């Protein structure tokens, strides 16, 4: 714990959270338990990364490991237990970590559309409930799970505040935050204001081992009710100086851990071919710029994340991963996959789904086993999980545990 502060100060990107129990190391009994727990669970992962929700030092270890090994974790928007479980089912199948991502709208949906959402109460409660669901079941899948929240613009900060409070409460009881990380997207504001607000939150988050994802530039397109489809195209490409400014500012916070969603022509949603011009070289140039400024040995000092990856060319995705992208968001493609599974189920069983009684096998035959909601929802889950296995392959995130 003591040694980390100085190291952190000089190399802000290579952050390490102090383990919460570090203060008890002098107690031999606790030390023994901790040593036993430090055993490697996954042969190809850092020892701190274990099945279940990954936070703090283990999360930073996981992301740095991904950067070093050249893979990115799928960050998947979910809307309920069906999509959450599909994520973990996929991760178990492809043998890698997964990031379960709650949006403000997704959280509200989990709480229920009829729930009172004054002051974002339902959005907060739904995210917290979803996070607790993941915490209860994640270990049963035997994979590392990152609990994250998506875009939060300035007007949505009350939602963010509610989530941070939930983390602080959880931390008091468990010595770790409820979530692994949260995103602040203040890219609509000036660079100074964006990073200024991020820094204030970073100070609060660093105290409870939470990682911050921030955004520079603007991700185009439309997602979760935010429409950036008409934004000036120059803002779709981040400048290296801007990233370095953020790196220095956030890196000056003790125990800070952060990732950067720098726009490089990416957009939310799927568009006709030719409409999206990705320039992942922006990320490569930015890493080189920061390395030079810092005189660092690390050729990739920044941890990047990739928004709006749906529909992107695999070559572009993998070139971005080479530039230090450790997570790619997936929403549009898994939305389609889930629906496509339900659609196909209905198409296959249509004649058994037209009434409670009566189908091609007989006018008095019951259809209960066809219209049981678990049947169509399960078809959605399976299709979503299959799509995620493909995404994991694109991101080289398959078979990275053992
Ligand atoms: Zn996004």
Order of helices and strands: HHEHEHEHHEHEHEEEHEEHEHEHEEHH
Please provide the count of β strands. 14
Q: Strand fraction band?
A: 5-15%
Oligomer: single chain
Q: Let me know the CATH homologous superfamily.
A: Aldolase class I
Bound molecules: zinc ion
Q: How many domains is the backbone divided into? A: 1
Query: Average pLDDT value?
Result: 90
Which class of secondary structure composition applies to the elements?
alpha/beta
Q: Considering DSSP H and I runs of 4 or more, what fraction of the residues is helical?
A: 40-55%
Dominant shape = globular
Distance between the first and last residues' Cα: 29 Å
> So what's the CATH class?
Alpha Beta
The major beta sheet can be summarized as:
9 strands, parallel
Q: What is the name of the CATH architecture?
A: Alpha-Beta Barrel
How many helices does DSSP assign?
A: 14
Rg result: 22 Å
The CATH topology assignment is: TIM Barrel
Write a short abstract of this structure:
This protein is an alpha/beta fold. The chain has helices spanning 2-10, 28-37, 56-69, 81-94, 104-111, 121-141, 157-174, 191-206, 240-251, 281-294, 314-322, 332-348, 368-371, 373-394; strands at residues 52-53, 73-78, 98-102, 144-149, 181-184, 211-216, 220-223, 226-228, 258-262, 267-268, 304-306, 325-330, 357-359, 362-366. β2, α4 and β3 form a beta-alpha-beta unit.
């Amino acid at each position: 714990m003591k040694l980390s502060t100085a190291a952190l100060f000089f190399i802000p990107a290579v952050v390490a959270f102090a383990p919460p129990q570090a203060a008890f190391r002098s107690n031999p009994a606790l030390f023994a338990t901790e040593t036993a727990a430090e055993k490697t669970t996954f042969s190809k992962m850092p020892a701190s990364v274990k099945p279940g929700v990954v936070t703090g030092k283990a999360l930073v270890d996981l992301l740095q490991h991904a950067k070093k090994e050249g893979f990115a974790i799928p960050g998947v928007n979910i809307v309920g237990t069906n999509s959450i479980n599909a994520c973990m089912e996929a991760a178990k199948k492809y043998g890698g970590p997964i990031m379960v991502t709650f949006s403000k709208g997704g959280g509200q949906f989990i709480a229920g559309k009829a729930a009172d959402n004054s002051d974002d109460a339902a959005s907060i409660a739904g995210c917290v409930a979803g996070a607790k669901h993941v915490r209860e079941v994640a270990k049963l899948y035997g994979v590392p799970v990152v609990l994250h929240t998506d875009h939060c613009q300035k007007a949505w900060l009350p939602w963010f505040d509610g989530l941070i409070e939930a983390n602080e409460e959880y931390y008091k009881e468990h010595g770790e935050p409820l979530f692994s990380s949260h995103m602040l997207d203040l890219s609509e504001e000036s660079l100074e204001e964006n990073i200024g607000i991020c820094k204030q939150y970073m100070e609060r988050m660093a105290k409870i081992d939470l990682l911050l994802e921030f955004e520079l530039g603007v991700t185009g397109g439309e997602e979760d009710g935010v429409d950036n489809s008409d934004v000036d195209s120059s803002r779709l490409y981040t400048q290296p100086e801007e990233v370095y400014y953020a790196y220095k500012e956030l890196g000056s916070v003790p125990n800070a851990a952060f990732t950067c969603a720098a726009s490089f022509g990416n957009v939310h949603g799927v568009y006709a071919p030719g409409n999206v011009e990705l320039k992942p070289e922006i990320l490569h140039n930015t890493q080189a710029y920061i390395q030079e400024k810092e005189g660092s040995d690390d050729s990739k000092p920044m941890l990047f994340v990739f928004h709006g990856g749906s529909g992107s060319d695999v070559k572009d995705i993998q070139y971005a991963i080479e530039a230090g992208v450790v997570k790619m968001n997936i929403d549009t493609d898994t939305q389609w996959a889930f629906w496509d599974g339900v659609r196909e189920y209905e198409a296959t069983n249509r004649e058994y789904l037209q009434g409670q009684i009566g189908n091609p096998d007989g006018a008095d035959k019951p259809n209960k086993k066809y219209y049981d909601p678990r049947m169509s929802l399960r078809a959605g889950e399976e299709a979503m999980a299959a799509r995620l296995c493909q995404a994991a392959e694109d991101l080289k995130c398959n078979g990275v545990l053992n």
